[in-house]
Write a structure and sequence with these properties.
The complex is a heterodimer.
Chain A lengths: L5 E7 L1 E3 L20 E3 L1 H16 L2 E8 L5 H10 L3 E5 L9 H15 L4 E5 L10 H9 L2 E12 L2 E8 L2 E8 L2 E5 L11 H10 L2 E3 L1 H4 L36 H10 L9
Parallel strand pairs in A: 1-4, 1-6, 4-5, 5-11, 6-10, 7-10
Antiparallel strand pairs in A: 2-3, 7-8, 8-9
Chain B lengths: L3 E6 L3 H12 L4 E5 L13 E3 L10 H4 L5 E10 L4 E7 L2 H4 L3 E3 L2 H14 L3 E4 L5 E5 L2 E7 L2 E10 L6 H5 L11 E10 L2 H7 L6 E9 L8 E7 L3 E8 L1 H7 L4 H10 L4 H4 L3 E11 L10 E2 L2 E3 L8 E2 L4 E2 L1 H21 L4 H12 L2 H8 L3 H5 L2 H19 L9 H12 L3 H14 L1
Parallel strand pairs in B: 1-2, 1-10, 2-7, 4-12, 10-17
Antiparallel strand pairs in B: 3-6, 4-5, 8-9, 9-10, 11-14, 11-15, 12-13, 13-14, 16-17, 18-19
Helix pairs in contact in B: 1-4, 1-10, 10-11, 14-15
Chain lengths: 268, 430
């Protein structure tokens, strides 16, 4: 009997570094030219969850992303962390997509890729925070999904995962194939060493266009997106202040805050 | 067989220039930089002097991210109440540019991109731990216990060369060979800058200041450079006097410079965009390490290539030219398939005939003058009191300048013989 290696897919996205995001005050769009691009942090946790399974069993990890050519750095980074293969679905027709055609494109890429057992994705991305894409891909592929996973274990064809819910933790056991969305900071992504980075650069990644993944231009990108953004407005910054007082200064501070209306008496 | 012909450690102007030169001639080059993005760890005042880049990027004046060209150069003494300045403006710089203000995150990213386009493998976000040595020669670099091999390693680590120091290739920095630089970048907008500095178009201002008003015996210089819509403002502090004083902080000095009555108006209302601090290499010719050995070369600040003579403060141009020369040496060494110290001594020969070394040699001992009580205290005081006496209308009969100066000299407490001697030294050194 031939036992094939477990095929694990990890969905990743390159996002603007959330610490540096600048909103153009006129157009209300993200000014992407000023920010540097990084791999979405939760996706790094998804990759780490996949690599931890690969540490234990014979597995093959493939990273798949949809994005413009500059997502190259993210593909190389994932290879340097330990992925075996990286595929970037990149095509001008894919541009301007909302979460629906994004899920469709990723699912089509996975179908073109072939057989798989487990798909990991970050729970949400830091640039749009919808959390749609992972579940969307599971629906397009018609497989089970586990969302909000904080801990993932694989054994004998089953995934056991802890899901963080509002009122507690749920443990689920699901047979493969399955898609799992992983929570931000649920593990510590491994480091990329110089050796691995060099090997990743030498290996390179694959770029697939709409023909390769078998999609019509009108199904994807901006044309395939049902969402219409009507209006954007900025959130007003709240004024903050800090003040250092010694122990004796506390009564005065309380009085000052009371006079400013920042705090109230219980009787009021 | 080595994995790479040459590994370059550090993607500043020196390292990237070397990588561009070598990769464009077909060498198999790895350029490693710990900052990510490239340039994020690098600090300099911000004027790129000269035309050294032309050798590797012929159209650099069009393609590189340059801010403004220097049209107006100010060298100035600041006392508590006054500014005494040489304010040199010339339209000649419009025809033939002498220097451009730059922002390092942009410039260094551009140069690293050029290295990559030339065929070098550029890897960022990785710190090199040490040099790999075998039989007394450098055979590669070590990161997290793994060795990456190369026939030659070029160290372009900057003013704090940890790898070169650990390998004993350069001495430890001391209070005489490094100063501390602090820099702020303020956003003011293009029109405000043009108005305040009396500029038009992409003409720019470069000012360097002696901060003679500082108390407690601390010596420091200030700089103020205009970018497109920001200004770079900073101080370079002499470590010997800072340590002797013991209770002055670098940020206090920065603050005092920014609040000086004739500086504050220039940066007023600016929005702080960046702040940084860095070693500034201050060593002289006598402090320069041997720039080559078995399987390695040193370039840029690591090799001691930054220069100040009190009127000009330069580093990036020497970094670029030393990087290019090291690159040339590596290309020739590759042809001979010989990266021994003897073969790489050709780098030193190239350096010896270049401005990078000749300037250092010709201005030996300049630091003793630049950081002297005469420059930082006596001259500014003397100029201030003389000019004040001369220009202030008392209603009394006027005196000759020489009389005024002698009187000011007496009141300054400086011995006239000392002043003559130091003045002579200054003129000789400058």
């Amino acid at each position: 009997m031939i036992i094939l290696a477990l095929e694990i897919i990890v969905l990743v996205k390159q996002v603007p570094d959330s610490q540096e995001v600048v909103i153009d005050p006129v157009t209300m769009n993200l000014n992407r030219s000023l920010t540097r691009n990084v791999t979405n942090r939760a996706d790094e946790n998804a990759l780490e969850a996949a690599l931890q399974i690969k540490d234990k069993v014979d597995a093959h990890v493939t990273v798949i992303s949809m994005g413009p050519p500059q997502a190259e750095t993210t593909m190389i980074e994932c290879l340097a962390r330990g992925a075996d293969r990286a595929i970037l679905a990149s095509d001008r027709f894919f541009g301007g997509a909302d979460t629906y055609p994004t899920g469709l494109t990723l699912a089509a890429t996975i179908k073109t890729f072939g057989k798989f057992d487990i798909i990991f994705a970050g729970e949400e991305t830091s640039d749009s925070s919808t959390g749609h894409v992972g579940p969307g891909v599971a629906e397009f592929l018609d497989i089970d999904q586990i969302t909000y996973a904080s801990k993932v274990d694989f054994k004998d064809g089953y995934i056991t995962a802890e899901r963080e819910l509002e009122d507690g933790t749920e443990v689920v056991r699901v047979p493969t194939p399955v898609l799992i969305t992983v929570l931000l900071n649920s593990n510590v992504p491994r480091r990329q060493t110089l050796r691995r980075k060099i090997d990743a650069m030498k290996q390179g990644f694959e770029s697939w266009d709409h023909e390769k993944v078998g999609l019509q231009p009108e199904w994807v990108g901006v044309r395939g997106s049902p969402t219409i953004v009507r209006k954007m407005r900025p959130i007003k910054e709240r004024e903050r202040a800090a003040k250092k007082v010694d122990l004796a200064g506390i009564p005065d501070l309380v009085k000052e805050l009371y006079q400013k209306g920042a705090i109230k008496l219980e009787s009021e | 067989m080595s994995e790479f012909d040459v590994i370059v450690v550090g993607a500043g102007p020196a390292g990237s220039s070397a990588a561009i030169k070598m990769a464009s001639q077909g060498l198999n080059v790895l350029l490693v930089e710990r900052g990510d993005p490239v340039g994020s760890k690098n600090v300099s005042g911000g004027i790129l002097w000269g035309n050294d880049l032309a050798a590797i990027i012929p159209d650099w004046e069009k393609s590189a991210p340059l801010e403004r060209y220097v049209e107006r150069k100010v060298t100035s003494f600041l006392t508590g109440d006054s500014e005494i300045a040489i304010d040199f403006k010339t339209k000649k710089f419009q025809e033939k540019k002498t220097g451009y203000s730059v922002l390092r995150t942009r410039l260094d990213s551009f140069l690293a991109r050029k290295a990559s386009q030339s065929g070098a493998m550029v890897i960022t976000g990785v710190t090199v731990d040490a040099l790999a040595m075998k039989d007394g020669r450098v055979v590669g670099i070590i990161n997290e216990g793994e060795t990456i091999t190369a026939d030659c390693v070029i160290l372009a680590e900057g003013a704090n060369p940890r790898v070169a120091m650990a390998a004993g290739l350069v001495g430890k920095p001391n209070d005489r060979t490094v100063g501390i630089g602090v820099k702020h970048v303020y956003k003011l907008g293009e029109n405000v800058i043009n108005e305040r500095f009396n500029l038009r178009g992409n003409a720019g201002f470069a000012g360097e200041y002696v901060l003679s008003f500082l108390e407690g015996g601390v010596y420091a210089g200030g700089f103020l450079y205009t970018n497109k819509d920001t200004v770079s403002m900073g101080v370079v502090i002499n470590m010997e006097t800072l340590r002797k004083n013991g209770n002055t902080h670098s940020f206090d000095i920065m603050e005092k410079f920014a609040q000086h009555p004739f500086i504050s108006g220039l940066v007023e209302g600016g929005q702080l965009q960046e702040y940084s601090a860095h070693f500034v290499y201050e060593g002289g010719y006598e402090d320069m390490p041997r720039a080559y050995g078995n399987g390695y070369m040193l370039v840029g600040d690591t090799a001691g290539f930054s220069f100040s003579n009190g009127m000009i403060l330069q580093g990036m141009n020497y970094a670029i030219s030393s990087g290019i020369l090291a690159g040339e040496a590596a290309i020739e060494a590759k042809k001979d398939n010989d990266f021994s110290a003897e073969s790489l001594s050709r780098y030193q020969k190239k350096l010896d005939n270049s401005p990078a070394v000749l300037d250092k040699k010709n201005f030996q001992g300049i630091n003793n003058v630049v950081w002297s009580p005469m420059v930082h205290r006596a001259i500014p005081a003397l100029l201030e009191s003389s000019l004040y006496s001369m220009l202030y209308e008392t209603g009394n009969p006027k005196k000759h300048l020489s009389q005024i100066m002698m009187k000011s000299l007496k009141s300054s407490g400086m011995n006239s013989k000392d002043l003559m001697l130091q003045g002579y030294r200054l003129m000789r050194r400058m």
